[in-house]
Write a sequence for this structure.
């Protein structure tokens, strides 16, 4: 998308454009020349303003809805405003206290991230989203519970007390005795290791033939580790809070767009792919409307900021999803402050 440089607009065009955008972001309604002419600081007649607005429309920065003579910013116009004209407002002391208070420091990190997302959602009146950092569980115990002749429930117990289950397809001829033997072997050999470490240890033992298992049991151990490792790599780890904020009065006027957005929020893998784009940088990223294919139909914006772990590396992303008509000057610094607060928590 080609955006007109702000330097190519004269002072009059910049002033009119700013008023249109700020009014639209505040009300969600197109802005007419008569409304703009009442702003004393501009000192322009309605006719002069109409001419300027026509020029801005020809540049692709403003558009006129079919039902109104007023103008509203296009996505291109919003991008120009955000990148070149917006004056960001730092979060108020009250907002900062709410964000810091909403992030619990004790308990699982997922609880802190969920609380931060809910607080951010409430303050911004958008849906809050956070990508949870991948954490490899430290293993304590494995178990296999037979379900039928060809399936068993693989049970993993972490050192932190977490318990997760997966259904595992069994090779033919596996008996309950083999399941028990494999589980005991895995618990004894891999307790205290991560899944990656356990996989590497098993590969070394098999290569050196230092294993005390027959072929069927070895295959079972390998399958057990593989199902957990594959799950850890592929499972979307995403928390979404505050979807109800997206069904405001503006959304009620366009129920189809609201429905599309809520459906898009159900596709967590797609949102996760979008947020991965924010992992590469160190600054807050803003995606406006069709700049991202995922939200092109619903006309939504995403503001996302990376947060860091104890070693200073980016480990996740926190942000909001809302209509393109949101208060960027207020919400962008709020998202950035939430990311900074999470980074302090992770140290």
């Amino acid at each position: 998308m080609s955006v007109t440089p702000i330097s190519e607009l004269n002072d009059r065009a910049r002033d009119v454009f700013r008023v249109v955008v700020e009014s639209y972001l505040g009300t969600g309604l197109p802005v007419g020349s008569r409304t703009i002419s009442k702003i004393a600081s501009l000192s322009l007649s309605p006719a002069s303003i109409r001419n300027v607005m026509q020029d801005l429309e020809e540049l692709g920065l403003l558009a006129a809805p079919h039902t109104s003579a007023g103008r509203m910013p296009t996505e291109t116009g919003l991008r120009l405003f955000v990148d070149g004209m917006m004056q960001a407002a730092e979060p108020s002391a009250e907002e900062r206290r709410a964000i810091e208070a909403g992030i619990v420091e004790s308990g699982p990190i997922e609880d802190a991230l969920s609380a931060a997302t809910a607080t951010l959602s409430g303050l911004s009146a958008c849906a809050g989203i956070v990508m949870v950092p991948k954490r490899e569980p430290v293993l304590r115990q494995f178990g296999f519970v037979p379900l039928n002749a060809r399936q068993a429930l693989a049970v993993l117990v972490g050192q932190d007390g977490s318990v997760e289950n997966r259904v595992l397809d069994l090779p033919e001829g596996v008996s309950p005795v083999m399941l028990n033997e494999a589980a005991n072997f895995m618990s004894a050999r891999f307790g205290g290791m991560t899944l990656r470490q356990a996989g590497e240890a098993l590969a070394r033992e098999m290569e050196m033939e230092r294993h005390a298992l027959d072929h069927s049991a070895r295959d079972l151990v390998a399958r057990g580790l593989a199902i957990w490792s594959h799950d850890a790599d592929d499972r979307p780890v995403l928390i979404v809070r505050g979807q109800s904020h997206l069904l405001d009065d503006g959304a009620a006027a366009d129920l189809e767009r609201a429905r599309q957005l809520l459906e898009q929020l159900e596709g967590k893998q797609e949102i996760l792919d979008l947020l991965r784009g924010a992992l590469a940088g160190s600054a807050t990223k803003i995606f406006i409307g069709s700049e991202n294919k995922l939200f092109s139909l619903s006309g939504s914006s995403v503001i996302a900021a990376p947060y860091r772990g104890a070693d200073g590396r980016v480990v996740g992303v926190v942000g909001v999803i809302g209509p393109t008509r949101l208060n960027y000057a207020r919400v962008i610094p709020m998202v950035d402050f939430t990311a900074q607060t999470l980074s302090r928590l992770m140290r």
Remarks:
- The radius of gyration is 27 Å.
